[in-house]
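Subject: Protein record for review, amino acid sequence with backbone structure tokens
Why sent: The fold of this protein is of interest and is recorded here as tokens.
Notation: Tokens come from a learned vocabulary of local backbone shapes, not from coordinates.
Attached in line: The record itself begins immediately under this heading.
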Amino acid sequence: MSGGNKSKMLHLTLEDFVENIPGPCALISSDYEIIAMNGRLKDYCKGDVNRKCYEILAELDEPCAVCQLRSLFKNPTVLNTDHLQARFGISCLVSFGYLQDSEGSGLLLETVRPLTDHEDTCRKALIQSQKTLSAMMEKLSGLISVSRTMMQKSSLESKIDLVISQIEKSMGAGPFLRIWIEINGKLYGRMPDKIEGTVSVQEIRVENVAKGKICANFSFEHSMLPEDEFFLQETADLIGRQIEISELETMLRFSEERYRKLASNLAKEMWSRTEALSQERSYLEGVLMSSADIIITTDLEGRIVEFNPAAESFLGYSSEEVQGRKISDIWVDSAERDRILEEVTLSGGITNYQTQLRHKSGDIVEISLTLSLLKDGEGRVLGTVGISKDVGKEKAIMRELERLNQNYMEAVHFINHEMKNSLIVIGGFVKRLLNTETDSSRRDQLEIIYHHSKFLEAMSRDFLTLADIEHGEFQIRKEHIEDFYEQVILPAMLGLKERYPNSFQSYDASMGGVGMVRVNADPRLLEVVYRNLFGNALKYGKPNGRIAYGVSFGNSHYTFNVWNEGPGVDPDEAEKIFEKFYRVKNENTSEKRGTGLGLYNIRKIIEAHGGKIWCESQPGSWVNFLFTLPR
């Protein structure tokens, strides 16, 4: 762009423009210079805007390998697809849009969108972006109307009255907005008797002297947006120019020639501002056309009206080929389109609807659709506007991840099953050697081997349980348990005797234990629960500290617990300890070995029985694990 005043106004408008785009974005010149960057992108890069774009946005010392910025300026048609790049330590979709002025030069609009599974956030950001752009275009159209009104050959009073109605129409707030203008002590419009809500006041100045003001009263139901304030500032500036012209007319008797020159210059400047506003409107339309999402509009008969370049790229049709055709022609299920159109008519729109379109080649394209009614300024329905995202690649990635996870769990199950069998054989063999060995040093060595094999055997059991849970082979075989202690708790204790020979020497009987409790459950899996809870008490509890267990009776369930004296668990970790592979990190656990699966596995077992498990603790004193089972 050239021209001092024109360039200055465009710079201010572009800064305001990028700040009102919801997504992180920047405007970049062909010399890799960042012309404008909004606050959301600054939050990510935290860099100096005066450096090159690849230094700030990509943290590189030279242009990105996939960028080819100068080529993009020569051939803007390649800007219609997203590029997957690593930005700020996360994966992002980087989109490019080209903004060209009438002189053939332009700027590159780069939008950085961090990838996320939260589709609703993406949808809201997109809708807000479209609303913001639409609102800004309405404000620009309103400024053009105000500019042309102020240039009419009529009295200042009649022009100001007309400007007030144009301001109210452009700001579109209806009964939530009241506008009045004061010029040289005279009131135009109607000032409310009682002002409630937010009031914006913009001074009307001529040669830096206040001549009046524009006042806008927003009710509590309608908040003022940045573009509203910008619109009022520009309108006040235009009125100030007209007042200046009017005052110059009164000076005609002193210097008619001087008046004519000044009036001519001011008229040129106002026309220049009008043309600049028109060009900015074209820029905004260009941004919409360069969107990386599919945008298709239809009329009331379901015929295609607009078909943006992204739609051409994704579906293979040119805009000329499909204009006038029924939108149902490119739907895989045309009846489905009729059904959702009924829903849109009733509700006003749908969001994040998963469906399929047909490519010109016949291939199926999976999309996420946002469809709404297209209305004119008076609220009349003109047709529909659909904004779609191609989700085929994302679904293919998810299917591949599911397949890999299935293979992983099968491998874990196989490896741990074989390892467990081998460890049982090793443990039994070492046990027999211990029973016959008389040399004390060799017995000590065999004891170490035996206890390590038992640890590995317990670890393999945890992994096998995990594999069964996540491989879909986790089954509960319930039976009627007559004596909970004999069938569940005692086997769990005996299973720990070899690893902890002196276990349960400090049993605290204050909680009463668990005796002849009758419950319908899987005793094999409940033994796993108690073996893990007792094992944690012996491993992490206070040396020779007290251990207790008990049960209480509710109307519909039993509440069982295992308590031990020891360092306990911090409150912020009480929920996390039941997550897969999570281990408490402190001086009491750093030297203890474990898989981080025990509590995760028993949570799954308890939940499969229709119960729940939780942890209570007094850090530094005790910890109590409680779980429920239906009666």
In short: The chain has 16 helices and 20 strands. Residues 11 and 121 are 30 Å apart (CA to CA).
